[in-house]
């Protein structure tokens, strides 16, 4: 990717320990605007901690983190809200507020985000909520509560809430974990669709190779409204650069393209590649 | 020690947010409804029967000294200074400190609080400060209602067991109260309210360990808040004795 493209997220030698266990061990990488990053790793490898540290939800023991060119490493909670409003975060189980309806959940960032200019009246908010839910094909669930939806539907609502403010960067924490293959495909297809329709940079934490492969090689076709293999109709279209990362016990043990990932001989890295 | 430091930090942030935008007024009114209106029946019931029991016991004790006429005075002082604020606070602790701790604890273990932070909202501003304001407004009001109903319960016993007239009961009850009794009776629920809200929020916000952790947080919140209520009522009572 063009080095003139600004870095939107940078980790410089970041370490964090939970007790004696390292969650991030001298982690360094740089992500540029328009890029998609896929993070693989076993349970406890530090993937979720990486995402949380990226938006200041956890503080590193050492190292520096830059988000949208602003160092967030030592920012106080209150000073983080502005920069956080530029990054969407989808939690593993959706993180929906169970006492709010689906419409209220999706409207939440529009109405409550500190530092955000208020949306134009109730109608403006309602229209944005409907649009976001239409995007994930759940417009009919407006008045339902999260516990009335299936796991896959809750994550789709989570995606709608994450992207309703159109943040330039979205972080997905294992959005397909525990889902059947069909629902998992639907979720990743939605991520591909929103990435390209809204031109968002994304980091996706997963342990499923298929998710990364889909994001790296498939594109959303606005004419057919479907996600299709990039080589078929979109070979000439400029793609979103996809970088794969593999974490092991807090360390970044691999960073590169899908081709490089597939040709890696590292026994740990190869466990995440479906050949 | 670390927990106490965390509690102080949370308290300072919660109080600072009272004067800081944004103010989530709809959350404050919702909590006022849950804490205040929701606790009203049980507070009225307890206040009424504490007045009745006190009137009944005092009728026997005072009859031994031929001082039945003082029943209004004794019921009034005991209720306004101590029993009203403490009983009401303990009821609200059982009902609301546990409710706050379990609600916030569940939000904690299901990542809803982290989601709130990630969505750019301060959870202390959104969750703790509205509960602090709502409890601080509603508990003194509940205590006043409890005191009044308790006095009425005492009157029913005084009238039925000791044939004391309405004017005699209410006059002695009213005259027994000095300025510092009323101040004490209103200051205590305000201090208790702050303790109930902050202790409930504190244990809720630091819940860990899944659903079992939520249960533990709820129990701790009720026990710790109840203990503080007893300690503080003794301390405030001592200060007022010293001042007068």
Word description of this protein:
The complex is a heterodimer of chains A (about 280) and B (about 240). Chain A is built from ten helices and twelve strands. Chain A has about 280 residues and is of the alpha/beta class. Chain A has a six-stranded mixed sheet with strand order 6-7-8-3-11-12, with helices on both faces. Chain A has a four-stranded antiparallel sheet with strand order 2-1-4-5, with helices on one face. In chain A, helix 5 runs parallel beside helix 6. Chain A is globular, with a radius of gyration of 18 Å. The two termini of chain A are about 25 Å apart. Chain B is an all-alpha fold and about 240 residues long. Chain B contains eight helices and no strands. At the A-B interface, helix 2 and helix 3 of A face helix 4 of B.
Order of helices and strands of chain A: EEEHEEHEHHHEHEHEEHEEHH
- Describe the main β-sheet of chain B briefly: none
Mean pLDDT of chain A: 86
User: Percent range for helical residues of chain A?
Assistant: 25-40%
Shape assignment of chain A: globular
Structural class of chain B: mainly alpha
Low-pLDDT runs of chain A: 232-237
Oligomerization status of the protein chains: heterodimer
The number of distinct helices of chain A, counting runs of at least 4 residues, comes to 10
Key words describing this protein structure:
heterodimer, A: 275 residues, alpha/beta, 6-stranded mixed β-sheet, B: 244 residues, mainly alpha, 8 helices, 89% helix
